[in-house]
Amino acid sequence: MKTSIRAFLTWFALANLFVLPAAAQQVKGQPDQPGNARKPGVVILATGGTIVSATPSPTDMANYTGQLAGVDSLLKAVPQIHNYANVRAEQIVNVGSNVITSENILNLAKRVNAVLAEPDVAGVVITHGTDTMEETAYFLSLATRSSKPIVITGSMRPATSLSADGPVNLLDAVMVAADPGSRDRGVMVVMNDRISAARYVTKMNTLNVDTMGALEQGYLGAIAGERVLFYFEPARARGELYFDVSAVTKLPHVELVYRYQGQEMQLVRDAVKEGAQGVVIGFTGNGNASPDHEALIREFGSKGVSVVRSSRVVSGIVTPKVSGSMATGSLTAQKARILLMLALTRTKDLGQISEFFAQQ
Ligand code: ASP
pTM for this one? Predict the structure, then answer.
């Protein structure tokens, strides 16, 4: 009995995701119909993630494997997005964000810049896995410059799950991207009815749908029913930087290593062995280095490797103190790595790179 209910639920969920309902087919044609020209243009750039994943059973929310569905399945699952915007979609890559590469985010940034330059486009939505969503979001905030909103969303539950969160997250993201009040707010993450700033957002829970947020800085706003509600007038994160990536073909190799009790120095040394140009070390507390680490920082410096002192602590600010290294300020270690990569595309000068970090 249980098996047949489960089989039905699986079929039902898959049918909703992959089989195009008649109504959705009609809606798909809506952007070309007269009258829709008044709706803002929103482009969805899809990169994969749990939002397009499937599990054998709707009660299995974690063990998704195999082929990810394409962006078409997302559009079919949420025909209501066409009530808010003239939507078109492109598949950039189709992978979990645990395997997104530096090349992928560089290409994505270039595509976002190209799409935002189109006069009919009011905003962009990027669908993305949540694991490294914050890295892509922060990268885009540094590599794009536009008044138009860039909104990143994803889901924690596979598309075939009971109470999958992907469809509503996509709807919310399109609403935010289409909303005139979203201009001049930079890159935002929209998940679970909340709007976060790319600069500060981080994944805070491995499984829960309420995972994206910023402990210290909080949220920018919320999606309240059918309304996008910002808590503040348009504002940008402090120390915002811009790196033009139009001529960049490859991002520099920057490693990230975390400190723990009894760490062997060899492991940290190995991180920069294969030609890394920089390394971020997530130290304990306020970026507290041991004497051995301090010696290694000096050694790296003498070889022209940029070292950034960060922290493995969940929140807070890392203040400058060990000479020869830069402190991350309020950037997390994973975001410091993104900034160091982009900084190295512009200069190798440690003084200049330190200036970028000093503003964070
Ligand atoms: N593994 C997934 C990813 O692509 C997790 C998610 O999307 O929530 O990051």
Answer: 0.89
